[in-house]
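Table S2 (text version). Query chain:
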Amino acid sequence: MLLSVVMMMMMMMLCVDTGLYEDLFVLTLVLYSLTRSHSASPVSIARYGVLLLCSGLVMHVVPFVEAVCPICGDPFNSVHDKKENCPQIIVPLKNQEMIAERSLDKVPTLHGLLPPEVLAVFNKWVVEAIVGIVCAPSQGSTIDFDASAYASAASVVRAAVSGHCSVEEAGLVLMSRLEVATESIAVQKITAAIELLKSSNAKLGASTIVQQGQGVFWYIWGKIGQVIENAASGTVKLVSESSSKGSSTDLSVKVRHPKNESEFFYMLHLFIRIVTALGITSFFVVHQFVSDVVHARKFELDLTWQLCYGLFSSYVEAVDRDGSRTLTLANVYQRGSGDTYLVAARRKVETFFRTRGGDPQPEGGKFDDKEVKWNGEFNKDAKKPCVAWNLGKPHNPSSLDATGRCKFNHFCMQWVDDKGPSGMCHGDHPKCKCTYDSVHKLTAALK
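Corresponding structure-token output:
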């Protein structure tokens, strides 16, 4: 009994010294119950006390080590050893720093940030082209080859590939540097750059896009359309990043307009994700832009998805073609001119979804009356009246354009005999509510 009391006192003192007050309370209860038991020997009491104390020390002293990253869910390794080093956090921040430096020698990486089907389109050559567009000088200005961005021979070649200057101008710059080069390593690098510039691959890249005034966001949107096209056609593309050459199909872009609402919103989802992953802008900026231009306008004005797409493309085009470089995704909507963008959006919709000559319609000319409904507007310049409106009936989808506006004019089509041949009331009310003098009303047009 004396041994158990001594052991209990020693373990209590250890608990107090280490701050294990909870274990002290539990230990006291257990040992007290054991001492009250006639079957428990002093040795067994001491063993129980030591075992309980050791378990408490292990739980409180030994730190808990996480085996899986709470951010991405991947197991920790030598590089990704803590959540602060998670690639989902580190890589976008590094990409953002690269883009901010406006250097052609630094190219962001998208591995681990995008799924394989998207990476197959946004390969390293496409990303290099995107960097070239971002770093391009403003329209009408010339580049300074003495700047740090073009210090290396490789950056001069990239400048020509990216459309910052002509191939001939880049060649002259390299030749002038070769004439004054004294070190053999510098001569070798410049000579290799000149040979690369002479090759046909030097004419690939974003040069056509830059020269035509297309910006980085519309280029990215065009490549997103390629992702959708590959998925729709079942195309599988294997990309080897070890290859040193990119084909013209990798770098060229043809904008593919969405065919339905779900495709449009999926493309918006990819747009937000890719722009953020590249580090061109932050997630909150691009998300707010899409919210203001698309979601809020659709909710507040009850616009069709086609018109929302027209608005999105109009705002993106304004940012891309701003020669002053003052318009960004963060401020273009707040600058106002919403009515002007809406007019531009209507024109774009008629162009994007034109399939039957002068009758612009989406989905190959097939309307879904659940999707396209009359938005309360009509064509004030039309010569023909709207029959559905005059009869007080719902608009037929075939009488609406892609934005939901009625193709016909809304005036009273009641025939009358005091306005000449084929004279009509032309009031701002429908025929079913015509208040014209009944004496002059006719059931057919006056010959």
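Notes on Table S2: The radius of gyration is 36 Å. Residues 18 and 373 are 74 Å apart (CA to CA).
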